[in-house]
Design a protein that fits this description.
Length: 472
């Protein structure tokens, strides 16, 4: 939670500084370049997410050699595939710029920044995978602290360079410093926890590569579908509204997602833990996983609903305090729409992480597909009937989050009720003894009594999700 709050504080400071020194149009140009380079996510192959799960499973089995082999194999694969994608995008740079409506001086700036940002993207792939392996080793706290501290340092460096007269090139320099710091620290953490160096060619294994690609293939599909949401919306805004409006969309989306990140901070730990437990066999684990998911979902509603309602009602004041005169009417409308959407997305987070932890990649991909298609249809209808705007892009994104949430709750209910779900075994003490696992929602206070909002929260969930929650 503290890490998430620090990240939000960094964002609160960074965006006004970027807008002050670069202006909305130049900062929008950087964001549009980032949207183009998001196509390089095809080179990630879904390996980063797969690595966390597979390392966690090896840790649960006590397979030290498997942990080291997966980390090295993943790092080499990302260097090769990421470089190939950047080279491909470089050859298609001019057609892509024309499609999103960037010409003249702006096109020349992007052409200069493209190879720098491309090389940085490949470097980011590798370092993010290494940091993900730290989370898979059971130290998600270290992974989060490292990510948070390095990003804070990167923002400080970018802001310092901007104040000294640098231009847009200060942003990639700050990003490089962020990942260089992460690189130095994460290598030290891995060497300490694994008892030796990781990067040795003898650790590369073809069977490990196949496992990474098999699990990562589904996550790659999710990444491809993700391009039909944020990057596509930014491309539409850049072409039909202008680069300055891209900054407006990014500010609204990032601010809304920071509130979601606060609520999601504790939920994220579900994935490696469910993955570790699911890799072992014990008939009682199905109930344990199901009960854990229920509790997380109920807490999300009980604690998140009042916070998001308060933010929605006071969004105008919050944005004025944060950005002053830059808090335009378009930004306020888009932020309210996305706050509603991110709350709907937050409701699906416990079930999402449970699905990923259990290896049900198909359901995750289908949820992303529902989000992407809903977004694309909404924006397409809006373009046909009215005209492109930041609020239209925000509406498509928010509606897509709601549809995806409904789907992941249904999918989690289905898979956790399957009789062949693998179980927790030795790790069962995390939930208590098998006979203490309750079949119904039970949020227990420190004194052992039910949380006072239990009944109201359960009724609310029943109305929202109907029999799906009861089946879950």
């Amino acid at each position: 939670m503290i890490v998430t709050l620090v990240r939000g504080s960094v964002m609160l400071v960074a965006y006004p500084l970027y807008l002050r020194y670069l202006g909305a149009e130049r900062y929008g140009l950087w964001l549009t370049l980032g949207a183009l380079l998001s196509l390089a996510q095809l080179g990630n192959l879904g390996i980063t997410t797969a690595l966390t799960k597979l390392v966690s499973e090896c840790r649960g089995r006590g397979d030290h050699e498997g942990v080291v082999s997966y980390i090295f194999t993943a790092a080499t694969a990302l260097m090769a595939s990421g470089s190939a994608m950047i080279l491909l995008l470089s050859s298609l740079r001019q057609p892509l710029l024309h499609v999103i409506g960037i010409y003249g001086d702006h096109a020349r700036i992007v052409a200069w920044l493209f190879p720098i940002a491309g090389a940085l993207t490949v470097y980011m792939f590798v370092i993010e995978a290494l940091n993900a392996s730290v989370a898979g080793l059971g130290r998600m706290d270290l992974s989060n602290y490292l990510d948070c501290g390095a990003r804070f340092a990167g923002v400080v460096i970018s802001a310092t360079l901007l104040s000294r007269g640098w231009g847009i090139e200060a942003l990639p320099m700050g990003t490089f410093c962020t990942y260089f710091i992460m690189n130095a620290v994460v290598i030290r953490i891995l060497r300490t926890r694994l008892g030796g160096p990781v990067f040795r060619w003898r650790h590369w294994r073809l069977d490990r590569m196949r496992s990474l690609l098999r699990l990562g293939g589904g996550m790659l599909s999710a990444s491809v579908l993700g391009m039909l949401i944020g990057p596509l919306n930014k491309a539409f805004i850049s072409r039909y509204v202008g680069l300055g409006a891209v900054s407006t969309y990014e500010l609204a989306y990032s601010a809304a997602m920071q509130f979601r990140a606060v609520g999601e901070a504790g939920i994220r730990a579900l994935m490696p833990e469910v993955s570790r437990l699911g890799s072992q066999r014990d008939p009682g684990c199905r109930n344990a996983v199901r009960t854990l998911t229920r509790r997380a979902l109920l807490l999300t509603v009980a604690l998140g609903l009042p916070v998001f309602l308060t933010v929605f009602a006071g969004s105008g004041i919050l944005l004025k305090v944060w950005l002053g005169s830059r808090a335009t009417v378009a930004l306020q409308h888009s932020f309210r729409i996305l706050i509603a959407g991110t709350f709907l997305g937050l409701l699906g987070a416990p079930c999402y992480y449970t699905l990923v932890g259990l290896g049900n990649v198909r359901a995750v991909v289908q949820a992303y597909a529902a989000w992407a298609v809903t977004n694309l249809v909404t924006v397409g209808i809006g373009l046909t009937m009215w005209k492109m705007s930041v609020a239209l892009a925000a509406s498509g994104c928010a509606l897509g989050m709601g549809v995806a949430t409904v789907y992941v709750i249904w999918a989690a209910a289905r898979i956790t009720n399957q009789p062949d779900l693998q179980a927790c075994g030795p790790g069962q003490q995390l939930f208590g003894a098998a006979e203490t696992i309750q079949p119904k929602w039970s949020i227990i206070s420190a004194r052992g009594t039910r949380w006072p909002g239990y009944a109201a929260g359960h009724r609310l969930l029943g109305r929202v999700a109907g029999r799906t929650i009861e089946d879950l």
